[in-house]
Amino acid sequence: MRYKPKEQKRPKRVINKNGQPQDRRSTKSSSVSSGFYYSFLTIILLLCLVQITISAVLNISKIISYKAKIVQITKTRDAAKALNEQLQDNIKNFSNVAGLEAIARNNLKMSSEDEVLVIINTPKEEEKETKNNKLIGFRKHD
What we know:
Helices cover 66% and strands 3% of the residues. The protein is an all-alpha fold. The chain has a domain at 24-111.
């Protein structure tokens, strides 16, 4: 086996669009400028990615809050519908004579012409307690 000396590397020849050989120095400067260009584009793309991520998170949180508001408004609407139905039933019930008579007897303490109304007032327990507390406050202690 023979020892082969290493061949000396020759610089590659770069040819322009015009077909003329290009200097090696100009390719180095263009590679530096293209490296800077790619770095700049990478930074811009990363910033865009961060912005998209933040926007997605904010949109998801808005969607969640809007869905909660929709549920709350739906519950309020259903409660209002139930109240409206109840009020309509009350209007139907009170539009006849029997309903009006029941209101007059129970709430307004009225009676018809041939009836006698007797009202017996019983004091409530709260009123009794307040009267007893007032009496205790005026006692003299020796």
